[in-house]
Amino acid sequence: xxxxxxxxxxxxxxxxxxxxxxxxxxxxxxxxxxxxxxxxxxxxxxxxxxxxxxxxxxxxxxxxxxxxxxxxxxxxxxxxxxxxxxxxxxxxxxxxxxxxxxxxxxxxxxxxxxxxxxxxxxxxxxxxxxxxxxxxxxxxxxxxxxxxxxxxxxxxxxxxxxxxxxxxxxxxxxxxxxxxxxxxxxxxxxxxxxxxxxxxxxxxxxxxxxxxxxxxxxxxxxxxxxxxxxxxxxxxxxxxxxxxxxxxxxxxxxxxxxxxxxxxxxxxxxxxxxxxxxxxxxxxxxxxxxxxxxxxxxxxxxxxxxxxxxxxxxxxxxxxxxxxxxxxxxxxxxxxxxxxxxxxxxxxxxxxxxxxxxxxxxxxxxxxxxxxxxxxxxxxxxxxxxxxxxxxxxxxxxxxxxxxxxxxxxxxxxxxxxxxxxxxxxxxxxxxxxxxxxxxxxxxxxxxxxxxxxxxxxxxxxxxxxxxxxxxxxxxxxxxxxxxxxxxxxxxxxxxxxxxxxxxxxxxxxxxxxxxx
Length: 517
Description:
The chain is α/β, with parallel strands linked by helices. Among the domains are: 63-161 and 196-253 and 434-513, 3-Layer(aba) Sandwich (Rossmann fold), CATH 3.40.50; 256-359, no CATH class. Helix content is 33%, strand content 15%. It has helices at 135-141, 183-190, 199-212, 225-236, 256-281, 291-307, 320-331, 338-351, 355-363, 378-388, 395-408, 413-417, 459-468, 490-502; strands spanning 36-38, 45-47, 73-74, 86-93, 103-111, 122-127, 153-158, 218-223, 241-247, 310-313, 316-318, 445-452, 473-481, 511-512. Helix 5 runs parallel beside helix 11 (395-408), helix 6 (291-307) crosses helix 7 and helix 8 (338-351) runs antiparallel to helix 9 (355-363). Mean pLDDT is 88; it is low at 1-44 and 365-375.
């Protein structure tokens, strides 16, 4: 992928003007503990006991399983260099088909559980999406979101392969350049690693992590792309599935091209709902009297910006593609993003000021909606996506796919259409057209989907629950706008927290009312 070929990510909060796979991150996590736990106020402290597991991953040398121990110590990098966080590295095979060969180190971070020692369930491993998001950096940034779980779990996150401190992908003009100079540069700088950074390899890392953390089964919370990782894990290790939450899931039945079409339709539908709300509720609505007028005004605005981009502050500018991507950034925030979006569009239309639109969504991060982390790796997003997908369309197929995406949305189709070129010149083969996620025999997996999600459209949640297998995938539906519904929807939060604490899933067909109800 190059700057000329952006793709919309499976995450919210895409940085304005991103030209590679738009990665936005959603729902990042935090918090836990101390060396001593208290059963109740006034009672004496309990010493912490470390859990041990008796089911190491098969096929690995003892040096990596029974002979390896995680050496937790204080983290040293900002913002993790605080007393409350511990970091460690885990050795894994680079190539699981050659487990005795070269090893790599996976970077981990932990916050210890705060509740009574005898009530601790184990570790909850978190993946915040992307792909391309550092869990080591992300955990401290979103500490408050998962506080209700801190009394029962150590919270664990990590840098997946290709990201952060775990064999980071380099595709720049020099070895230290973190930019993207094309697929050939990726092969030159990171070719030794690129065949081994896909989701199935990271899923195998998860099982070794589970064992070294002392858990017989994996407890896991994955968001957006993190749902693909969790589902692939469930497929590979159904007997090791503990309590898995897959929130804002990707559609395991769609290839990259189909995903682009579905996503651009979903973001257009979200914009239409915003435009209808704006017309009815916002005085001097910048998009006019409804969705049809909004599409016409956006087309005129895009044409103006294509001819002359608007200043956006700090020497940057906002062009037609930036317009679409920045509007999309606001839409992933759900109704929280609607009023700021109207104000930002007014500033752009009336005053040619692109700053509020360009920077607004990133500045709105809160405890309920994830901000784009500063260390998101767009090159890692490309590399991991192309390692997963074996789709390598020819020129004729690319032209058809591009036309389909453009036709699917009058507002966003042009900007999204270049995403079809993401992997066309990637120098390594991908693994599969669509991931294998069937997990027959696994414990129930909770799948949470929002009906107004513009990034991972709701049908994907139904498909994920069904693909996991009968009696495995349990779908919880939230009638909410935006990408992700935990923890801002109270009904979702209560159902998810109950499942993670007790293992009880909500009744089949449960629907949580919300902003779309």
